[in-house]
Design goal:
Elements (H helix, E strand, L loop, with lengths): L2 E6 L3 H11 L5 E7 L2 H11 L3 E4 L8 H11 L4 E6 L4 H10 L3 E4 L4 H12 L4 E2 L1 H11 L11 H11 L4 H8 L3 H15 L4 H10 L4
Parallel strand pairs: 1-2, 1-3, 3-4, 4-5, 5-6
Helix pairs in contact: 2-3, 3-4, 6-9, 7-8, 7-9, 7-10, 8-9, 9-10
Length: 208
C-alpha cells in the first residue's frame, strides 16, 4: 500500500529535504506541498492524502488552528507535526487540535519514516522531549518526584548496557510498549530528552 503524503513548511529548502528523504521510500508518494496554512488547506482538500507533515510556525493559519481546520475539512487525514519547537505553547495546542504525532526536525530519517507509517496506522508518535512536556502537564498538581521505581531502575540498567527496547522487554518479561512507557516516565523524572541523557543523569545521581 502506498501512503500519500503532503508536506507543509514555509521554507522551500526544508520541503526539498523532506522530499529527498521520503520520496525514496517505495511505499511513500509525495502528492502535494504547501508553504503556508491557506495553501495547505487547499492542497489537502484537493488531494486528500493519508498523512500531512506540517511545521507549526508559518503564514496563517498555523499551529493548532491549521491542524483543526485540516481535520475539519478532511477528517480521515493524519496530521504529523515536524518542527523545531517543543515548548508547552507549541506542543499542547497541536495535540489538543488533533495532531497524531509530534516530532522534532532533528529526528533521524529512519525514525521519521517509521513515524509516518505509524501515523498512517493511527498510532501516536512523540519525540521524547514532547512526551515529557505532556506527562508534566497531565499531572500538574503532583509534587516533583525524581525517584525511580524498582522497575524503572531495571529498565534503565538494561538501557545503560546498550540493550534495545525489544531486548529489555525480553529480559524483563514485559512488552516492548511497557518498556517505552517506563522510559517516558524515566525521561520525565530525570528531566532529560533521550536514552543517552537518562543514562548520564542516572550515573551522576548515583542511580545506577
Amino acid at each position: 500500500m502506498t501512503l500519500r503524503l503532503v508536506l507543509v513548511d514555509d521554507h522551500p529548502v526544508v520541503r526539498d529535504g523532506l522530499r529527498g528523504m521520503l520520496g525514496t521510500q517505495p511505499d511513500f508518494a509525495i502528492v502535494g506541498e504547501a508553504g503556508g496554512g491557506l495553501e495547505a488547506l487547499a492542497v489537502v482538500e484537493a488531494v486528500r492524502p493519508d498523512v500531512v507533515l506540517t511545521d507549526l510556525r508559518m503564514p496563517e493559519p498555523s499551529g493548532g488552528t491549521l491542524i483543526r481546520l485540516l481535520l475539519e475539512r478532511v477528517p480521515t487525514v493524519r496530521v504529523l507535526v515536524l518542527t523545531t519547537h517543543d515548548t508547552d505553547s507549541d506542543v499542547l495546542p497541536a495535540v489538543e487540535a488533533g495532531a497524531i504525532g509530534y516530532l522534532l526536525k532533528d529526528a533521524p530519517r529512519d525514525e521519521l519514516c517509521r513515524a509516518v507509517r505509524a501515523a498512517a496506522r493511527g498510532e501516536s508518535v512523540l519525540s521524547p522531549s514532547v512526551a515529557a512536556v505532556l506527562l508534566a502537564r497531565v499531572r500538574p498538581q503532583a509534587p516533583a518526584d525524581t525517584r525511580l521505581s524498582a522497575r524503572e531502575r531495571e529498565v534503565l540498567a538494561l538501557v545503560a548496557q546498550g540493550r534495545t527496547n525489544r531486548e529489555a522487554a525480553a529480559a524483563l518479561y514485559i512488552s516492548e510498549a511497557t518498556v517505552k512507557t517506563h522510559l517516558l516516565h524515566i525521561y520525565a523524572k530525570l528531566e532529560v530528552p533521550d536514552r543517552a541523557s537518562a543514562v548520564s543523569a542516572a550515573h551522576r545521581r548515583g542511580l545506577l
